[in-house]
Amino acid sequence: ARVGIGVLKSLVEAHGVGVIHQDLKPANIIMVNEPGEPFAAPRVLDFGIARVLGDNDPAGQTSDDVPDTIFCTPAYAPPELLRGKPDYRTDLYSLGLVLAEMIDGAPPYDFENITASRSPHLERAPVPFGHLSMNGPLAPVIKKACAKQVRHRYASAAAMLEDLHLAYRSLTP
User: Fold this and answer.
1) Per-residue confidence (pLDDT) for residue 49, from 0 to 100
2) Which of 75, 72, 80, 69 is closest to 112 using CA atoms?
3) φ, ψ for residue 32 (rounded to 5)?
4) Residue 20: what are its φ and ψ, rounded to 5°?
5) Between the chain's N and C termini, which has fewer beta carbons within 10 Å?
6) What DSSP state is assigned to residue 21?
7) Which residues, listed in sequence order, are joined to residue 43 by a DSSP beta bridge?
8) pLDDT of residue 69
9) CA 83, CA 80: separation in Å to the nearest integer?
10) Whether 49 contacts 23, CB under 8 Å
11) How far apart are CA 109 and CA 116, in angstroms?
């Protein structure tokens, strides 16, 4: 929960200036020990393929075709990113996957020999999370963040942050 809260604070800032990370995954989150802080704090790295959304951004295209070239890590890429239509909620889906992987010890899908165009993230069924992540206090947050349809996800990183704070408070005395 603390890692998710820290990442979400970064996403609130990035999204606030119109930036979508588009490649959020465990390798792009580093834990940093800050002087005087009791816990290491997460920092989001590698905005190398980030997208700045604006009025002329192609993310609003209506085609359901998968683009020829997609820059992402397929194991953490939500359906809309794989279709070339990311928005801010793209990062929330990826973070939900990261949180579940931290709890379950493995990602929900096996991506060996799978390409982005054949990604299980494009399927309509819910993401098959493990027993631990789906029966713990973060389950409602993870499920909502990883809804296959964008409109069923959190409206913003701030909204997800609020729910994650509530879940965290339920875990601490």
Assistant:
1) 76
2) 75
3) -120, 130
4) -105, 130
5) C
6) -
7) 30
8) 60
9) 5
10) yes
11) 13
CB atoms within 10 A of CB 44: 20
Active site residue 55: no
Helix (H, G, I), strand (E, B), or coil: what is residue 30?
Answer: strand
Query: Which residues 6+ apart lie within 8 Å of 151 measured at CB?
Result: none
Q: What are phi and psi of 105, to 5 degrees?
A: 85, 0
Q: Are 97 and 10 in contact (CB under 8 A)?
A: no
pLDDT tens for the 173 residues of the chain, in order: 999 999 999 999 999 999 999 899 999 999 999 888 888 889 998 877 777 876 445 444 434 444 456 677 888 889 998 888 889 999 999 999 999 999 999 988 877 766 666 788 888 778 889 999 999 999 999 999 999 999 999 999 999 999 999 999 887 76
Among 23, 57, 104, 163, the active-site one is 23
**Which residue stretches of the chain are H helix?**
2-16, 79-82, 89-104, 131-134, 139-145, 157-171
Q: Which two tokens stand for residue 83?
A: 């279709």
Looking at residue 160, its amino acid is: M
CB atoms closer than 10 angstroms to residue 163: 16
* pLDDT at residue number 113: 66
Task: State the virtual CA torsion across 17, 22, 24, 27 in degrees, nearest 10.
Answer: -120
Task: Count Cα neighbours of 54 within 13 Å in the Cβ-side half-sphere.
Answer: 4
